[in-house]
Amino acid sequence: MDHQWTAHFIAGEWEHEADERPPIPVENPATEQVIASVPAGGAAHVHRAVVAARGAFSSWSTRTIEERAQVLDGLADLLEERRELIARTVTEELGAPIKLARQLHATLPVHDVRETARALRSMEFETELGNSRVYAVPVGVVGAITPWNYPVHQVVSKIVPAIAAGCTVVLKPSEVAPLSALLLARIMQEAGLPDGVLNVVNGAGPEVGQAIVEHPGIDAVSFTGSEATGRAVAQQAALTLKRVTLELGGKSANVILDDADLATAVKVGVANCFLNSGQSCNALTRMLVPRELLSSAAEIATAAAARYAPGDPADERTRIGPLASARQRDSVIRAIETGLADGAKLIAGGPERPAGDALTSGYYVRPTIFTDVDPDSFLAQEEIFGPVLAIIGYGDEEEAVAIANNSRFGLGGAVWSADAERARTVARRIHTGQVDINGGAFNPAAPFGGVKNSGYGRELGSAGIEEFLHRQSLQF
Ligand code: TXE
Q1: Helix, strand or coil for residue 407?
Q2: Per the database record, which ranges form the Aldehyde dehydrogenase domain (predicted)?
Q3: Are residues 169 and 290 in the same domain?
């Protein structure tokens, strides 16, 4: 694969030149082979990117809404055209099965961009209020720091609403999976985005990420990643009083009520938890089942898990690939071992390497399910970020809601019931940013984000654009 564009992207120029720091290798987690490397930037690169972004801001922020929306339309068309290349890049750097990479990693961003363009055209940027005229104004230069788990979607859901709002951007993609973000930047350049509106600096979090958070020329930071880093970002950002959006982890509950179609709810729940090798912030990692149905649910879940044999992500038939890195694999195996040590009942998977001749290399783990999990235990409280499901029994609806809310996170959730009204009432009592009812599909126009330790602020659709606007009121 051609990775000629594995460089910084500043002021419309691709900068390949070597630096004093060694380049960062990018591994294919299925083969453990280095497939590319990106230059490791530092504070000086961030500074130049900020200067470029500030320079571009005056003209980009004064373009009409329709002009900006048209750039987004063109971008969505190009992303759609390049879906196969994007999918292959994500498969190589993340280990996502190629089918999933096509259907999700390369397709969702097209919808994200189209929905952002639609939202932009429908928003009011100027309103009358008594003797005031109120204007929605772009906040300025936005710093975006993204993780590796959805390496295109996570980037698009920050930079596209920022650009739609009229802001300019300095992006630091994850050093674990930077290639698709760089491909995206190339596509945005092709789509006619003016130089300096998007700038990309590669590098490590404590260097480039921190330099973005500290830089006084950046007005807002949007971060997705771990809870610990999110907290550090918010603290640092306070020193320059930047506006901050944080999308951190989750431990989302899948509440299966006693009147639900148990087989469907469990199967869809298992599929959701194992999606992307369990590396989704909103994964439904706690399955709450009426106590008397626990053994039936366990049986259905074990049968469902058997259909997730880890395999080569390049194979069209593979449903679950490796984890993204050795570090992630090791931390997931440690979590499974902790679950066993805590006495949870293992009904699928386990800490051993998955069987299979083809899997002699790669960061694979067995899709794992525990049942009778104590709602206060490590397995039920910590974000594992791997294919590990905790099934938890409950007595009545009241207890189900209490267990669902017994988490320091508040990102996603689900409720299943034969009675949609009952499901809605339960969902409204769950303290999270999103809840899916009876398998309701992800909506790229709906506000996405969390409460409690899952962070604050919202992404996607008009709520995503709002994050990057402030209001100016003129009184007459
Ligand atoms: O995240 P980090 P990691 C969770 C998940 C996972 C764990 C660790 O539980 O197991 O986090 O993943 C940049 N200042 N999520 O270590 O370190 C970093 O370079 C500024 C949940 O990969 O938070 C990367 O670009 N930036 C999650 C980004 O932050 C810094 C997605 C995320 O990396 C920085 C990913 C610093 N001091 C992991 N240090 C979700 N919410 O979806 C690092 N970074």
Answers
A1: coil
A2: 18-472
A3: no
